[in-house]
Amino acid sequence: MHCPFCRHPDSRVIDSRTSDDGLAIRRRRQCPECGRRFSTTETASLTVIKRSGVVEPFSREKVVSGVRKACQGRPVTDADLALLAQQVEESVRSTGVAQLDANDIGLAILPHLRDLDEIAYLRFASVYQAFENLADFEGAIAELRTHPGAASQGSAPAGAGGRSGA
User: Which residue range or ranges hold the ATP-cone domain (predicted)?
Assistant: First the structure.
């Protein structure tokens, strides 16, 4: 790492800390030549190859935008969508691959969306799993019924005990 002050080609790391979201590392450095200190931020890059062949950085906002369409008219909040985008980013980063196809991102969204809202999951899956007819929808619905996700388990809030009101 070049010193930003004297352009010496080396520096010494004094301290390292992860950022609040855990996706970046902040390093405090000192130049052995001039003795001045400076900070750097390091992040692992994650890029997406679109169908057109264009390569662009991964974007949580694009995940939220795509999923928001599937969730239209469903009881899903912006906070739910932000959490889903974070979970998707964490799962694709955990693969260790630096470059993914856009379709792989769509497929990585599916398990998280299934847990969030089954109807939105079916809408999204119909695009990313290329449903061609009603049999494809019926197969996905049968899979949801035989292996229900978190969205269909325990719909009552914790501590409600099945009672209502006072």
Answer: 46-136
